[in-house]
Amino acid sequence: MSREPGEVWEQFAIALAEMARDLLAQDSVQDTLDRIVEHATVLINGCDEAGILTVRRGEVRALAATGDVVRRADRIQQDLREGPCFDAVTDRQQVYVIEDLSRPHERWSRFAPELRKLGMGSVMGFLLFTEDDELGALNLYSHQPRAFDEAARRAGWILASHAAVAFSAARTHQQLGDALETRHEIGEAMGILMERYGLPENAAFKVLKKASQDRNIKLREIARQVCQTGEKPG
């Protein structure tokens, strides 16, 4: 028995809420990204594979993938610098779609045949996040041509929007954790220098900062070395 459209979207909304809670419960940014692509294959009709890539200064990097075929597709986009997902992040468009990879495609004349060789029939790319010079896209793949109807496109856009929020929250949480850990390590290193070498607090910090600048090494790494060796950086 087929379900009414209202019932379908109600079930999708429930599943989306469950996904949101699941993403926020992950322990790391990578876990969050992995769960996003897993949820995409479950929640989006026709989606067989999914992945997340970034484009930073023209370089494509795969962050998450449901399988090797997705990673190969990402490499193809990087090598050719062509494809809907690449365009989603470079042109900052919300969504790009190739409905049928078996047919000639004027815009992506090189990419489409290569993806077809991987056994894919259609693909969608959604802008996932933007931050400074780094952009990301959620990529949805299907083995079948014309697998993504209008409902699937709307659902994909909604999922991508929720995923972007969860990803941003996870990254902010990780950055905060890293900042607190860095602050602790620097404070511990300063304490060692103050106790062992009789330096006042401001002088101890200047020693760490100068070593960081002279060696072109992050301050956190200099502090870690001091904590491990107990020696004043040269």
TrEMBL record:
<dbReference type="GO" id="GO:0016301">
    <property type="term" value="F:kinase activity"/>
</dbReference>
<dbReference type="InterPro" id="IPR005561">
    <property type="entry name" value="ANTAR"/>
</dbReference>
<keyword id="KW-0804">Transcription</keyword>
<protein>
    <submittedName>
        <fullName>ANTAR domain-containing protein</fullName>
    </submittedName>
</protein>
<dbReference type="InterPro" id="IPR036388">
    <property type="entry name" value="WH-like_DNA-bd_sf"/>
</dbReference>
<keyword id="KW-0418">Kinase</keyword>
<dbReference type="InterPro" id="IPR012074">
    <property type="entry name" value="GAF_ANTAR"/>
</dbReference>
<dbReference type="Pfam" id="PF03861">
    <property type="entry name" value="ANTAR"/>
</dbReference>
<dbReference type="InterPro" id="IPR003018">
    <property type="entry name" value="GAF"/>
</dbReference>
<dbReference type="GO" id="GO:0003723">
    <property type="term" value="F:RNA binding"/>
</dbReference>
<keyword id="KW-0805">Transcription regulation</keyword>
<keyword id="KW-0808">Transferase</keyword>
<feature type="domain" description="ANTAR">
    <location>
        <begin position="166"/>
        <end position="227"/>
    </location>
</feature>
<dbReference type="InterPro" id="IPR011006">
    <property type="entry name" value="CheY-like_superfamily"/>
</dbReference>
<dbReference type="Pfam" id="PF13185">
    <property type="entry name" value="GAF_2"/>
</dbReference>
<dbReference type="InterPro" id="IPR029016">
    <property type="entry name" value="GAF-like_dom_sf"/>
</dbReference>
